[in-house]
């Protein structure tokens, strides 16, 4: 079924047999412009407190889904998928929870175990425990590829940003097996008021009636 293909789409689940780990850009390969652009990206990301946007998600196999994304830095994210996808993604309290509403089955991993968690840090620094492995400019867009220095084999995330003015438009997560998931944002709003309770997760298995197996 199509929705089962979507389930691991944000590359949150732990995977065996990792692909070849990405490599860092050599410091000598960075021009003054490169360093300036990385500083701009760093400042932009750290300037985001809250964000709301529509998203379209495309998995490696071409399966698609869409919905509404919320981010409240540090540490909080919520992806509400439009029907018929019965999926919910919530990040809070150091955990990512991916929930299938039909199966009533949550999958939980630490925020720090996925490259997507880089976006939710209190302070995003594109050096040290985060490594830049790619920097490209094309067609008015800036693409920056990152991975967690201590665990490169878990995967990487590429941020695609409009360059003038700087704005996050898309990210691509490549998991440890080399599978890519693309998330494209539209109707982006930042600096908006969000409710803290939006990012709480009360396990629906304890709030719903028994499953009808007939």
From TrEMBL:
Q: Which InterPro entries match?
A: LolA/LolB/LppX, OM_lipoprot_carrier_LolA-like
Signal peptide residue numbers: 1-26
- Which CDD domains does this UniProt record tie to the protein? LolA
* Pfam families in the record: LolA (PF03548)
Alphabetic keyword roster: Lipoprotein, Signal
Q: What is the protein's given name?
A: Outer membrane lipoprotein carrier protein LolA
């Amino acid at each position: 079924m199509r929705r089962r293909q979507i389930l691991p789409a944000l590359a949150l689940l732990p995977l065996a047999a990792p692909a070849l780990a990405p490599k860092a850009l050599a410091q000598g390969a960075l021009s003054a412009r490169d360093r300036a652009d990385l500083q701009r990206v760093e400042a932009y990301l750290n300037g985001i407190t809250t964000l709301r946007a529509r998203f379209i998600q495309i998995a490696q196999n071409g399966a698609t889904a869409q919905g509404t994304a919320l981010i409240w830095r540090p540490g909080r994210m919520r992806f509400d998928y439009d029907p018929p996808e019965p999926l919910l993604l919530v990040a809070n309290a150091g955990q990512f929870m991916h929930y299938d509403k039909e199966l009533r089955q949550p999958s939980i991993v630490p925020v720090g175990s996925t490259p997507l968690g880089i976006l939710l840090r209190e302070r995003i620094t594109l050096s040290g425990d985060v490594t830049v492995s790619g920097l490209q400019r094309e067609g008015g867009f800036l693409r920056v590829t990152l991975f967690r220095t201590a665990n490169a084999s878990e995967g990487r995330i590429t941020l695609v940003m409009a360059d003038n003015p700087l704005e996050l438009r898309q990210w691509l997560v490549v998991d440890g097996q080399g599978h890519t998931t693309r998330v494209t944002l539209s109707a982006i709003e930042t600096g908006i008021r969000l409710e803290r309770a939006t990012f709480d997760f009360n396990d629906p298995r304890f709030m719903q009636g028994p499953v009808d197996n007939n």
